[in-house]
Amino acid sequence: MEKILNLISARVAAAFEQAGFDPAYGRVTVSNRPDLCEYQCNGAMPAAKVYHKAPIQIANDVAARLADDAAFSEVQAAMPGFLNLRLSPAFLSAYLEQTRTAPRFGVAPDPRAGAVVIDYGGPNVAKPLHIGHLRSAIIGESIKRIQRFFGNTVTGDVHLGDWGLQMGLIIAELRERQPDLCYFDESFTGEYPAEAPFTISDLEQIYPAASAKSKSDEDFARKAHDATFELQQGRPGYRALWKHIMAVSVADLKKNYDKLGVSFESWLGESDAQPYIPPMLERMERMGILEQSEGARVIRVQEDTDTKELPPCIIMKSDGATLYATTDLATIWQREQSWQPDKILYVVDKRQSLHFEQVFRAARKAELIKPEAELRHIGFGTMNGKDGKPFKTRAGGVMRLETLIGEITDFVRAKVEENNLVTGDDVAETTAKIAMAALKYGDLMNAPTKDYVFDLDRFAAFEGNTGPYILYTIVRIKSILARYGAWEDLPIAEPETAEAKDLMLALTRLPDALELAYRDCAPNTVCAYIYELAGYANKFYHETRILTEEDRQKQKGYISLIALTKRVLETCIDLLGFEAPEKM
Fold first, then answer.
1. Pairing of strands 115-119, 153-157
2. CA–CA separation, 216 vs 45, rounded Å?
3. Whether the predicted pLDDT of 285 surpasses 80
4. Is there a contact between 207 and 170 (Cβ–Cβ < 8 Å)?
5. Helix boundaries (H) for 340-425
6. CA–CA dist 421, 88 (Å, integer)
7. CB within 8 A of 63, min separation 6: which ones?
8. SS (H, E, C) 126-180
9. Are residues 424 and 543 in the same domain?
10. Helix (H, G, I), strand (E, B), or coil: what is residue 377?
11. Could you tell me which residues come within 8 angstroms of residue 482 by beta carbon, excluding any fewer than 6 positions away?
12. Using an 8 Å Cβ cutoff, are 98 and 1 in contact?
């Protein structure tokens, strides 16, 4: 389905051509002066320089040819050469009727849609999720949904931190606490227990204790390094412990991601990329792209066109140890062989931009991914407290994500109960949905790269640019439709009021908003759009008698308009990763 701006521009372009001018000057935009017109064309000004005519004369010539066009109710030429346009009610309603009945509201899928991998989440096992994991999860989930909406086959990969020294630290600490466990007996030949010798609560205490001990106890630090090495070399008891750590941690991670409404199709981690590292290094050696630099093995990624120096990508340290870059490169190769992605999107802290620039260039040089595939880092800023510093607990520590969700839910529940929004069994479900809307919208309304201040009072408000305000608009429409009755097949009618027309014009802007969000991987564009749409919907509601309208044909038109608005809003909040309750 063609976008309305393209349809209008085609008509204006044809009028320019009929008047003897290049049709390219007929591009139409949404008016920046809605008090004067709905759309405008400024092509007469640049055309004047080419055709040596006054801009207003060109605008008048074009306006004369549009005077009888059924798409417009008003066409005016204004000094110095603007074309001001208003759509006819019949044209607008016919367009929105197409929108109402078209799949996906007529938003065209990406003709180049393909396989997409989104790397978001990135938690370390054996540690609880904290607020540092929030933005990656929320932004990544929304981008995944938007990518799917445009026809891509998307794999969300959590990319677990499940390898390296942290595993050795846990094993070494566990050995000191429970030395008699069979996992530490090198002569043990039986089957290892199916049940882990620890819980997630134990791990959450063991890891920080081991980490702190390693900083002050050289002997323990050496034991942790040795345990890491033996694990990676395949020592059976340590591998069995590692599997227990993974099972216990992943179950807890899934529980907390579920609370956040975030899911992953792939639960692979750094460990899954390890088998790819040796053949990848051999490949790099054969290609001659690995160089020695102060004992380390590196790939030079500086290009002649760079204006700033870009350090080499270190692949292997002088002691033979690999780094995050090595694992990330092996992961790219793994993904290429498993999924053949057309795009890999990394939703990771923007402070990692240099790392990803080096890795992406090294991956290209090593030909680890097909040359036409896109590698893209979507860097995000930090969530700060009101003091402008990274958000902390009242005690000054890093807040667990579970705690943050609990605090928001409790805060919203108090408001729900205080205002008697719902009662009985509906309280818990309604509270959870409002809390998620407050949290996610409060984050996503900001451009991903921007830092923002976490303000619970503002995010959970039922008025203003907030998630609860959007939900309240949807629930209000649901209530009207429920009282009206059967509304699903009512066609869009011509607007009867200025408020109805404004709402209809806002609905036509859906494709542009979603395409921009898709192109830029920017869910904030969707937030901006639905806030605008909700504003027009509420103004229409306040200024229009809907359920008390005596003219049944008028009433049907009103109902079909708010029903389409509800469907659009629900689709958009689903792309953002939350949903509306039935009552509020």
1. parallel
2. 73
3. yes
4. yes
5. 353-365, 401-418
6. 41
7. 75, 76, 77, 83
8. CCCCEHHHHHHHHHHHHHHHHHHHCCCEEEEECCEECCCHHHHHHHHHHHHHCCC
9. yes
10. strand
11. none
12. yes
Helix (H, G, I), strand (E, B) or coil at 86: strand
Amino acid at 138: I
Among 53, 119, 100, 149, which Cα is nearest to 334's? 119
Q: For residue 219, what are the domain limits?
A: 165-259
- Residues 6+ away with beta carbon under 8 Å from 426: 581, 582, 583
Query: If you compute the radius of gyration of the chain from its CA atoms, what whole number of angstroms results?
Result: 29
Answer whether 472's CB lies under 8 Å from 419's CB.
no
The residue written with tokens 């106890």 in the block is 217
**Close Cβ partners of 250 (under 8 Å, ≥ 6 residues apart):** 125, 160, 267
pLDDT of residue 164: 86
Total Cβ atoms within 10 A of residue 89: 16
Q: At what angle do helices 277-287 and 324-339 cross, to 10 degrees?
A: 100
Residue 152 sits at φ, ψ, to 5 deg, of -80, 150
Q: Which two tokens stand for residue 283?
A: 């490949």
Measured CA to CA, the distance from residue 49 to residue 524 in angstroms comes to 39
Looking at the structure, tell me whether residues 406 and 553 fall in a common domain. yes
Peptide bond into 197 cis (omega under 30): no
Dihedral, CA atoms, 559, 564, 565, 568, nearest 10 degrees? 160
> Which of 34, 68, 87 is the endpoint of a domain?
87
Average pLDDT over residues 187-192: 94
pLDDT digits (tens, 9 = 90+) for 387-442: 888 887 766 678 889 999 999 999 999 999 988 888 888 899 999 999 999 999 99
Number of domains in the chain: 4
Q: What is the DSSP letter of 6?
A: H
Residue type, 148: R
- Burial class of residue 337, CB neighbours in 10 A (0-12, 13-18, 19+): exposed
List pLDDT tens digits, range 564-583: 999 999 999 999 999 999 99
* Residue 157 and residue 173 share a domain: no
Average pLDDT over residues 532-546: 97
For residue 150, give both structure tokens.
């445009």
Beta partners for 29?
A: 40
Find the distance separating the first CA and the last CA of the chain, reported in whole Å: 35
In a shared domain, residues 195 and 239: yes
User: Rounded to whole angstroms, how far apart are CA atoms 426 and 422?
Assistant: 6
Other Cβ atoms less than 10 A from the Cβ of 167: the count is: 26
Nearest to 432 by CA among 258, 567, 571: 258
- Residue 115's beta-bridge partner residues? 153
Other beta carbons less than 10 A from residue 151's beta carbon: 14
